[in-house]
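Why does this matter for the project? Reviewers at the last site visit asked to see concrete outputs rather than summary tables. In response, this paragraph embeds two records directly. Each consists of the residue sequence and, immediately after it, the corresponding structure tokens. Nothing has been edited or filtered.
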Amino acid sequence: MGNMMKIKQLQLQNYGRFENLTVDFAPTENRVSNVTVIVGNNGAGKSQILQALATGLSWFVNGIRNEMSGFEIDNKLIKNNTDEANIIINFDFDANNFINQAGLLEITRWNTNKVRDGKNGKFPSYTKELNKVIKSFRNKNSHISDLSLPLIVFYPVERSIIGNSQADILSSQFNRFDAYHACVDSAGIDFYDFFKWFRQQEDIENEIKANVILTESEYIERLNTLIAEKNEIENIYNSMKDENSFYSKLVNTELGSSLNNLMEKLERLTEINQEKIDYLNSVKHISTRESIAVETLLRVKKSIEEFTGFRNPRIRRQGTPTMIVEKDGEELDVNQLSQGEKSLLALVGDIARRLAILNPSLDDPLHGEGVVMIDEVDLHLHPKWQHDLIDKLVKTFPKVQFILTTHSPLIVSDRQDILVYSLDNGELQQMPNVYGEDANTLLNDIFDVPARTPEIDKAFNDIRRAISHKELESAESQIN
């Protein structure tokens, strides 16, 4: 099956500060990646574009989840001096996608609009194609219990507030549609569900280990029994080894053979236990819900490690259970990390969690499809982490369409094939390829930031002018 769903285009009419805006998203004819990045000054409207997408997508999410309506456009987002706002989203459904079997075109669109109280609207409202999409997904999901569903999630800037990294509440098995919980809420997103889910997956893993792997006490008990047998045989062997009778030689031979067998048992006991541990840590056995849980947890842990450099993320259960990681050889509670470290860990973990819940039948659930929108993706991140962030997102979640906003020049120079827009005064301009450009050039050309502060820049120009006019004393004075 081809792409499940990609957002092809967004049109905004009288929405926020936009009178009429059209945004085409990657992948496009000249951009093969799934990444679109929008840059612009504060107040340019970057967040409003993502909010509009989230509002439009809420009708799809709520529809396939429980046949409920989506979010209304906030009256405050109707452009000043106009009576109606309109959001139109065009979707690209692959020609081989089962959705098209419901009679849809490859390009499908729907809209949501809002009219001020007491006013007449002029924009047509069309939801027929949306209803077909929802019906097709629900029908297919009724017949295929492990049907892969597309991820839809919007991370606003409020995601930076992680109220709790504890995992002290036990929950029942997660429902497939729990992956859509608070996924397009512009008011903020809570990462608490990620920590609860992580603990649950670890509980499943620990239960399997308890049933398969010897506990430390069991292992020591068996080991001590074998060692006692070995010592007893060695004592008999040592007491008789100097006797020359045929009987003693026969006994010595048997004792030696028994001793060798015991040593082999000792080695095999250790090997068998390690093999069971390796079996659980392998990614080759996906036959039951439990093994899938172990597999998924391993992949989520690996993604966190690759993004952050932290090792062995896990739940510590003494006292109030909480997530801990190893940083530079030191064990730390997640709450001891910086805001940027916590935000990135939770963001990556939450994307992975939602994909895992929505794609139970995939060999690698992180290869599930969907749309992820992140406002200010560079939020709280050190430049070292910004530098290859998009590259890691694409490699970890290769089939997800990312729509991002940023203030960082390091983000937009990360990959060669991303689609970059500059937003200024309500107008959107596609930027040329800036892959590999230095930060100063990007700040100047893309973010319209001068290389120096205006005062320093003027001082340099005055010095140059004095030198060019051979006013050397003046130039020297200004340099000093």
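We now turn to the second protein, recorded in exactly the same manner.
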Amino acid sequence: MFICTLCPRNCSAERTPANGGGFCRMGSHPVIARAAPHHWEEPCISGTRGSGTVFFTGCVLRCAYCQNGEISHRLLGKRISVQELADTFKHLEDEGVHNINLVTPTHFTHAILAALELYQP
């Protein structure tokens, strides 16, 4: 459990691995809705092999015209461990993507940093 001050909302919510009462409504373990090569959008980023995009659930911005509203506002996704997140990065790399692209990751910064420490390119 930790007291969260990761995003600009600074709600100071208690977050356990599975539960969080803060603005994002997320626990401390990452919840991802999709992780896959993302093609066609932003060619300078996706290039010819795609960008390894990881869509995190629970964005705190609540933009009215969010193109990822189903993911970010309706809390769709699967809770994974830090090791599984590191494995996701490796899997995307193995698929040949040009980069790893984290979409709305701020509220999972702690888990992402831990996953990067485990990540073995």
